[in-house]
Specification:
Elements: H1 2-13, H2 19-22, E1 37-51, E2 65-78, E3 86-101, E4 123-135, E5 138-145, E6 148-149, E7 152-153, E8 163-171, E9 177-188, E10 207-217, E11 220-229, E12 233-247, E13 250-263, E14 274-285, E15 288-299, E16 330-339, E17 348-361, E18 367-380, E19 390-400, H3 402-407, E20 412-424
Antiparallel strand pairs: 1-2, 1-20, 2-3, 3-4, 4-5, 5-8, 6-7, 8-9, 9-10, 10-11, 11-12, 12-13, 13-14, 14-15, 15-16, 16-17, 17-18, 18-19, 19-20
GO cellular component, one term: membrane
Protein name: Porin D
GO molecular function, one term: hydrolase activity
Length: 426
């Protein structure tokens, strides 16, 4: 089956001037300038982590809390493709951050890098770009880029996103089928302005990735992916997502995600042999959604990620503080979402969830246990000159027993306020 699909892709790409290509994205190109876009995204983020039960700030060893406030601006340009059988284009970005509040005694939230004296940087900036070409419905991009593969994903949870450097090919030649393959040789962290600053600049040597997703029906999607991160680990991933319509305002969704990770070479990220999966079931009823999920890890270690991007954990119980991904961990989640559009307030939403994990093996003979409660509310302006301006409030309370505190995270309350405004210039 795999050989047949790849043969069909090769045939479709070689069609060039055939009727198949006429209906392709490249065949409908309007031009380099005509299809271009320019977006300026402004983000302000306040973040406070208040460590409980007498714990100090693990980063500075002084104050019992971390607190930062910063402002970022990310300008993203995406050109269209030139017309013709093969289209050429360019993507580029420029971003910067400014510290509004936060001292060395309260550092560690990941909003700013530290200078040589250990103080948070007052401002930082970086820029990058990529070239791209398109043949029919296949795009090749080389350079600096943001990636969202389940086995290699750049994180955007702070002021600026991580940025990967490498090559990525994405093909959508067959309706419902998307294929991708790539090789990345550098990854910059969210606060690292250098080209290769993940894990202190000693992390990523190379990462080869491949993936495929297929929309079997309107309600059923399947996906697989694999990666080989040199001297760290190899991963395989699977996702199955099915939605059962019940009525006009009711549905039941099932989402399964699983990873298999094996150590590779020098295993610079530590022991990595692990299997982890999650299954979530969500019942939607009008404005309400009720979700339950279970997640389980087995193997010689917990699930490892980071050198392949800090967004590379597509699992149900990866939430605000904990990922519930330790060795042999079992975790359960209960979640409730409310969309206020049905009550006359479009753009306003609420979410709360509770996750409990146990059976964690730290090799001490004591079972690790952890719980986390999240609350989130978000409002997005729907019209007017500030359309799409959003306000987001997030709160988390994390608690664990002694062995879990010692090996993973201290008890903490995490409060964040994020204001974001994406302005479309082109």
């Amino acid at each position: 089956m795999r050989v047949m699909k790849w043969s069909m892709i090769a045939l479709a790409v070689s069609a060039g001037t055939s009727q198949f290509a006429i209906a392709s994205s490249q065949g409908e190109s309007k031009g380099f300038v005509e299809d271009s876009s320019l977006v300026a995204k402004t983000r302000m983020e306040y973040m406070n982590r208040d460590f409980r039960n007498g714990a100090s700030n693990p980063t500075s060893g002084t104050a019992g809390y971390r607190q930062d406030t910063g402002l970022s601006e990310l300008l993203t340009f995406e050109s269209g493709f030139t017309q013709g059988t093969v289209g050429f284009g360019v993507d580029a970005f420029a971003g910067g951050t400014v510290k509004l509040d936060g001292g060395s005694g309260h550092r560690g939230n990941g909003l700013f890098a530290n200078d040589s004296d250990g103080n948070p940087e007052k401002d930082q900036s970086r820029a990058g770009g990529a070239v791209k070409l398109r043949l029919s419905d296949t795009v090749l991009k080389y350079g600096n880029q943001f990636v969202a593969s389940p086995v290699f994903s750049t994180d955007d949870s702070r002021l600026l996103p991580e940025v990967a450097t490498g090559t990525l090919i994405t093909s959508k030649e067959i309706e419902g089928l998307e294929l991708s393959a790539g090789r990345f040789t550098a990854l910059s962290s969210q606060t690292g302005m250098g080209r290769d600053s993940i894990n202190g600049g000693t992390g990523l040597t190379s990462a080869n990735i491949a993936g495929a997703s297929y929309q079997f029906t309107d309600n059923f999607l399947g996906a697989i992916a694999a990666s080989d991160v040199e001297d760290h680990f190899k991963k395989q991933y699977i996702n199955l997502n099915y939605t059962l319509p019940i009525a006009d305002t009711q549905s039941l969704n099932f989402d399964f995600n699983g990873y298999n990770t094996e150590g590779d070479g020098r295993e610079l990220s530590g022991e990595a042999d692990n299997k982890i999966w999650s299954l979530a079931a969500a019942y939607s009823l009008g404005a309400h959604k009720f979700t339950v999920a279970h997640q389980r890890a087995t193997g010689d270690a917990g699930y490892v990620y980071g050198v392949d991007g800090n967004g590379t954990i597509f699992l149900a119980n990866s939430i605000q503080i904990s990922d519930f991904n330790s060795k042999d961990e079992r975790s359960w989640q209960a979640r409730y979402d409310l969309n206020m559009k049905s009550y006359g307030v479009p753009g306003l939403s609420f979410m709360t969830r509770y996750v409990k994990g146990d059976n964690i093996d730290w090799g001490t003979g004591e079972e690790g246990q952890e719980t986390e409660v999240n609350f989130e509310t978000k409002y997005v302006l729907q019209e007017g000159p500030a359309k799409d301006l959003s306000f987001r409030f997030r709160f988390s309370a994390y608690r664990a027993n002694g062995v879990q505190n010692a090996n993973y995270n201290a008890d903490v309350n995490d409060t964040r306020l994020i204001v974001e405004y994406p302005l479309s210039i082109l």
